[in-house]
C-alpha cells in the first residue's frame, strides 16, 4: 500500500474480519459453510457496503502473515481471500441455495459461487452455473478412464 491510500475500516473491524477468516481456515479448509461465518463478520462491520481496495488489501495481507503463506501458495490463497471478500454480501445466500440442492458445500463450491457472483451473476445464476460446470458431479472410475483417454 502506498502512503496516499487510506483505510476506511477501523482496526477493530479489520482485525475481526481477519480473525474470522483465520478461524475458518484453521477449522476445516474443505468446508465451504465456514465461509458464511467470514461473510457474517464482514457484514457486521460493513453493513453491505463494498470493501475498499485498500481495506481488502490490508485484510488479505494480515491473513497471509497470520497464516504464514509464502511462495507459490501465497498468490492462490490470497486470490481466494479476495474472491470471498468481494462477494461477502451475497455469498451466504448463494451458499445456502447451493446447499439446499447439493446437500453439502465444499470450500471449492464456495469459491466457484463467489467467482460467479463477482462476475455479475445473480444468486440463482451462480448456483445454476456451479451445477452445470461440474460443481457437484461425482467422478466415477469409468469417467476417470474416459477422461484419461481423451
Order of helices and strands: HHHHHHHH
- Share of β-strand residues: under 5%
- Major sheet characteristics: none
Distance between the termini: 46 Å
Helix content: 55-70%
Number of strands: 0
Stretches with pLDDT under 50, minimum 5 residues: none
List the total number of helices: 8
Describe the global form: globular
C-alpha Rg (nearest Å): 17 Å
How confident is the prediction overall: mean pLDDT? 83
Which structural class best describes the helix and strand composition?
mainly alpha
Describe the structure.
It is a single chain. By secondary structure, the chain is mainly α. The chain is built from 8 helices and no strands. The model has no long low-confidence stretch (mean pLDDT 83).
Write a brief structural summary.
The chain is mainly alpha-helical and 150 residues long. Helix content is 69%, strand content 0%.
How are the secondary structure elements laid out?
Elements (H helix, E strand, L loop, with lengths): L10 H17 L6 H13 L6 H15 L4 H16 L3 H12 L4 H12 L4 H10 L8 H9 L1
Amino acid at each position: 500500500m502506498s502512503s496516499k491510500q487510506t483505510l476506511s475500516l477501523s482496526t477493530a473491524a479489520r482485525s475481526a474480519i481477519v480473525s474470522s477468516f483465520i478461524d475458518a481456515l484453521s477449522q476445516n479448509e474443505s468446508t465451504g459453510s465456514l465461509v458464511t461465518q467470514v461473510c457474517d463478520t464482514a457484514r457486521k462491520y460493513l453493513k453491505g457496503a463494498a470493501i475498499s481496495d485498500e481495506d481488502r488489501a490490508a485484510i488479505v495481507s494480515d491473513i497471509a502473515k497470520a497464516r504464514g503463506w509464502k511462495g507459490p501458495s501465497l498468490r492462490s490463497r490470497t486470490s481466494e481471500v479476495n474472491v470471498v471478500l468481494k462477494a461477502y454480501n451475497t455469498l451466504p445466500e448463494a451458499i445456502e441455495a447451493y446447499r439446499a440442492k447439493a446437500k453439502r458445500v465444499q470450500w471449492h463450491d464456495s469459491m466457484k459461487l463467489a467467482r460467479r457472483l463477482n462476475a455479475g451473476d445473480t444468486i440463482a445464476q451462480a448456483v445454476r452455473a456451479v451445477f452445470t460446470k461440474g460443481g457437484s458431479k461425482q467422478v466415477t472410475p469409468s469417467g476417470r478412464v474416459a477422461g484419461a483417454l481423451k
